[in-house]
């Protein structure tokens, strides 16, 4: 007969095994806890992830920003009209850390990069990672969903304690997702809610390998 501790350990092991075969899209407004949820899934369920913003910063955004600054410096009189609205970042990490101050610009650049193939970024991420953290464009979200690139989508909600975001920088809404994960309490509450989510997914995808 299994003890409670033994049963809990077995359930946790089964959830980890199942999680390693899932692809999950994590969405939500800025600073509502998406990365924290991904950290919990990585720590407790062995899932891996990269921020979509970090990936696109490396591939597209920082090069465009650097190009704009180069054009400014090369202008005969360095006209103020040409001066970029963002800093001349020293490196990728500095650019990524400052993204919250230029969120609409980032949204538009990522949107344009996915214009021809709206599932491009999702395909890139899910080919390497279990989690896609931070999709903000409904066209890209729906393209990835129709292409079967992820199994489940989760909206992280902290709306009772933090403001919503403009649709100019986040067009995805809670109702578009399969599950709304409450993040209006403490960090302990969030971790408990993530475990409940994963138990739900284990039941839902019992036959997924």
Question: Can you describe what's shown?
Answer:
- This protein is α/β, with parallel strands linked by helices.
- The protein has one domain: 3-Layer(aba) Sandwich (Rossmann fold), CATH 3.40.50.300.
- The protein is 49% helix and 10% strand.
- The protein contains eight helices and five strands.
- Strands 2-3-1-4-5 form a five-stranded parallel β-sheet, sandwiched between helices.
- It is elongated.
Can you identify the CATH class?
Alpha Beta
Strand content: 5-15%
Structural class from helices and strands?
Answer: alpha/beta
CATH H-level homologous superfamily name: P-loop containing nucleotide triphosphate hydrolases
CATH architecture: 3-Layer(aba) Sandwich
CATH topology: Rossmann fold
Largest beta sheet, briefly? Answer: 5 strands, parallel
Note the gap between the termini. 28 Å
Blueprint (SSEs and pairs):
Elements: H1 4-19, E1 24-27, H2 34-45, E2 49-51, H3 52-74, H4 92-97, H5 103-113, H6 120-126, E3 131-133, H7 138-146, E4 152-157, E5 179-182, H8 187-204
Parallel strand pairs: 1-3, 1-4, 2-3, 4-5
Q: What features would you highlight for this structure?
A:
single chain; 209 residues; alpha/beta; Rossmann fold; 5-stranded parallel beta sheet; 8 helices; 5 strands; 49% helix; disordered N terminus
What is shown here, in short?
The chain is an alpha/beta fold.
